[in-house]
Structure formats: C-alpha cells, structure tokens
Design a protein that fits this description.
By secondary structure, this protein is α/β, with parallel strands linked by helices. The chain has five helices and nine strands; from the N terminus they run αβαββαββββαββα. The chain has a six-stranded parallel beta sheet with strand order 3-2-1-4-8-9, covered by helices on one side. It has a three-stranded antiparallel beta sheet with strand order 5-6-7. A hairpin with a 2-residue loop joins β5 and β6. The longest helix is centred in the first third of the chain and has 17 residues. It starts with 17 loop residues before the first helix and ends with a helix. The N terminus is likely disordered.
Length: 247
Amino acid sequence: MLPWFSQGAISPGGAFGFLSSSICTVLFVLTCLSLTVSAGGHTNNWAVLVGTSRFWFNYRHLANVLSMYRTVKRLGIPDSQIIMMLSDDVACNPRNAFPGTVYNNADRALDLYGDNIEVDYRGYEVTVENFIRLLTDRVAPDTPRSKRLLTDDRSNIFIYMTGHGGNEFLKFQDAEEISAFDLADAFEQMWEKKRYHEMLFMIDTCQANTMYSKFYSPNIIATGSSEINQSSYSVCYQILAVASRIV
C-alpha cells in the first residue's frame, strides 16, 4: 500500500505560483510510481484533469489545468489517456487582450492553449455527476471513447482538481459542490471495480487537504495546496490586469 503524502504548508494555489512547488511534487511522485512498471506493477498511466471554475476572473484555474496537461503529456501520457474537464471560456473571452492564448506567467513565455489541446468535457459538461460517472464508469453506452476512463487494475491514475473550495467541499462552476465524502466513495467504487492499481490525487484550492480527509481506499497518494482553514493564493495575479488591458 502506498503512503499518503500531505503538503501541509500553503503552496501558491493560483495558476502562476503553482509550478514552483506542486509541479515538483507531481514530477517526483509520478517518477516514483513509474518505477513499478519494470517490477510488473502497472501497465498503463492515465490522467484526469479537472478545472471546476468558469468565468474570466477564474483565469488562474484554467491555467492550472493547462499547465498540468502540458506536464503530463511531456511525461509521456498521450491524449488518448488524458481526460480533461474544463470550462474553456478564457482563450476567446472578449476581455482577453491576447485572443486564443492562455498563459501561466505575466511574461507570456509559454502559450498553454496553442493548437494541440483536447478538451473532453467542456463548459456545462463539467458537472459533479459527469465527474463521478467518469470515475466509476457509469456512463451511457453510446459515450465516445474520448469521454471514458478506460482503466483497469493495472492502471496508475493521476487525478488533478482545481477551483474554489472550503472545508471538505469543492465548487463546480458556482452551481454545485462535491464533498469529501462523495470523492471518497467514488474512489472506493473504483477500487472495488478494479479500476486502478495506484492513484495520485492532487487538489489545488482553499482548504484543499480536507478534500482527501475521508479517503479510505488503498493505494492512494494524496496532496493538496493548503491545510484546513488556510487559503490558497495565486502569486502573479497581475496577468489578469494585463490581459484585460486594465494596466
């Protein structure tokens, strides 16, 4: 059984400081998990990347997901094994002074949006129900492959979530919430249905660590950007002002 990992101190929870600490954690843990391949542990890697916010003022959350998307692709996970849930309402937002682009730093060194991203659940498809159905494989029979998590008991899964949250809850587009209990029960269903071998769960929100406080399934490493009663902040909020031509 894998140990649990908790990043207790606040790491920058917005889009722009996120890379400094959380990405390093991901790289380290994914590298450790990949070592089990040679030992006959798992045979395939998957990623589920979820941005639970929408609207322009949540630019940083979309950038968080796209930053992680770029990272897992560079680590070798193909688009066919990445499920991305995203509002996707920033790149072409009328307030975006750089149309068709999304950046994670004010120097605009790297366009995260580009022309090579695949969003599987877009806009109002990003719901608690769709997320839980995805994890537990309780989707409609005619659901296309690109919208299904086709894992088995030899699959290692990285699940990343970012948005606005609090003590044991995470908002989905300001319309609904998923609780720590909902998430724990979904992961237990996945374990019982032999849908993963090992899992890395990472969440980037206020009071993030409370979202995995109810986990009771084996083989899960969990980490978050903030402890209970702690907020999770972005570091370089100025990019929103620049992109909106406010400054």
